[in-house]
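A quick aside before the break. I want you to see a complete sequence-to-structure record at least once, exactly as it would be stored in a machine-readable document. Don't worry about memorizing anything.
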Amino acid sequence: MYYLKTKYFSRWAREEGVTDNSLREAIREFESGLFEGNLGNHLYKKRIALAGKGKSGGTRTILFYQIGKKLIFCFGFKKNQQHDLSSLQIKALNKLSNWLQSTTEEIIIKDIKCKEFFEISRTEG
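That is the input. The structure line, written in tokens, reads:
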């Protein structure tokens, strides 16, 4: 099972103060069935708390999940900057999801080496 974030998401998360620790917590919650929305096509909406602000003042993320294979954080936005996804964003995320569904382990490994994806360790440190 791969736990990843896209290059775009990684840059956004760093700028917004979303740490790998908070992503690990979001993964634990998601795998326990706690998420805010199933967008279809393997895409899910998951809220992430920011330090000192909690989930209500935190961020919204879109992740791709393929059971037993990969969980990839693809997109994020702050609730106070954007209420929901635009139709253009949904269309782009669905295109990405279609590609991710057919992505092989070899491609994932290559993209990690090329820094298109970044692994999220399941343990702190």
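Two observations worth writing down. The longest strand covers residues 54-66. The CA atoms of residues 73 and 90 lie 15 Å apart. We'll return to this after the break.
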